Amino acid sequence: MAQPGQEYIECATHEGEAAVARLATMGLRVAHFDAAVRKGHDRSSQVSRVHPRTYKGQVMWAETVAEIRTQLLDLNQGWDIGQTNNYETSFHSGRGIAIAVVGGDVNCGERTFSAPKASRKRGPVTAKRIRKNLLGQQMFDLPEFKDPPQDDELCDTWFLMLNARDNRMYLELSLATSLGPDSKFGLWRERIIMPYIPLRGAVVTPMDPDETEPPRVNVGRK
Predict the structure, then answer these.
(1) Which of 36, 125, 158, 206 could form a disulfide bond with 67, CB atoms 3.0-4.6 angstroms apart?
(2) What are 61-67's contacts with CB under 8 Å, separation 24+?
(3) 0.70 exceeded by the pTM?
(4) What is the secondary structure of 36-71 as a DSSP string?
(5) 161-187 pLDDT, tens per residue?
(6) Residue 19: alpha-carbon gap to chain centroid
(7) Residue-wise burial string across 142-165, b where 16 or more C-beta atoms lie within 10 A, e elsewhere
């Protein structure tokens, strides 16, 4: 539901060939995200029970972020690394796109009756990025912005949402325009749903530094 004073924007959802075509307009391919998820899972699978409880989800997040960057930087097409306010993204100034990795809930990666949410509450930097998604460049004309924004902040921030369930990683690249009362995303302008990725072993939903709750682990067959 739209927040008070916020106009409702119908969400465009892309699946199958439509998702592939939409990604192509952004200079992206499903293979970039497939490789990133598999690298994240491979590295997180090496975490043992002697590590801190939250570490596995943190490794999944960090290695997925790193591999997306590797995939996109290797293209030599203008992609760069965004780290303003310690908010980790891959971004392309010319296309106005930034990509952040977050954990999603069980509605992530599928067209369901309920819109997807983040698996955990989002923090203030995510809230700022979503506000930019809604308001555009006019956001930076507001009184609270004294310093000029960095290149990655000028982009719309898309969220690569990942959810581990049923020995699979479900994923989508989506553009949020609000946080709900629970701070776990509210409205979406666009969703690009990609095929789930079958994985072996303990599959974990990523946990990034803008979150505070522990990750959920999905234990699959070895």
Answers:
(1) 36
(2) 61/101, 61/103, 61/206, 61/207, 61/208, 63/39, 64/36, 64/37, 64/39, 64/40, 64/101, 64/160, 64/162, 64/206, 65/36, 65/90, 65/101, 66/39, 67/35, 67/36, 67/39, 67/40
(3) yes
(4) HHHHHHHHHTT--TTS-TTHHHHHHHHHHHHHHHHH
(5) 999 999 999 999 999 999 999 999 999
(6) 16
(7) eeeeeeeeeebbbbbbbbbbbbbb
